[in-house]
Amino acid sequence: MKLHVGVALIALGAVGGIGLDRVARSAEAPPGITRAILQRIAVPDSKYEVVLGIAEIAPGVSTIGRHIHNGAEAGVLIEGETILAIDGAPDLTLKPGDSYQVPAGVPHDARTGAVAGKVVAVYVVEKGQPLATPAP
Known about the structure:
Elements: E1 33-42, E2 48-57, E3 67-69, E4 71-86, E5 92-94, E6 99-102, E7 108-126, E8 132-134
Antiparallel strand pairs: 1-2, 2-7, 3-8, 4-5, 4-6, 4-7
């Protein structure tokens, strides 16, 4: 089963420009979250790049609070269970194999329940901009 919300691509970022672009187990990552950027790919003839990342979230942890991305986000939960809260939409309970989309600039957050979650995410964002920032 695939869950699609909004228009474009991925979630489970971070705030204040920390983003997924820090090495796994970075000191800046909130407790209970491990993140890593797997690839950055420049989109030819544009000001955008595609960022592929993976995040593991311990049981009972929120990604870092409501935040936005300066581009589209899409992802797939590969392990565990995660609740994705996107402003203007009902909360989604994601199970392994479920995919999601978060439109650019839309505030959202994700949290795990009793089971840890692991997500692979793709962002299409403007080069040089923070991957994520706190929601207004």
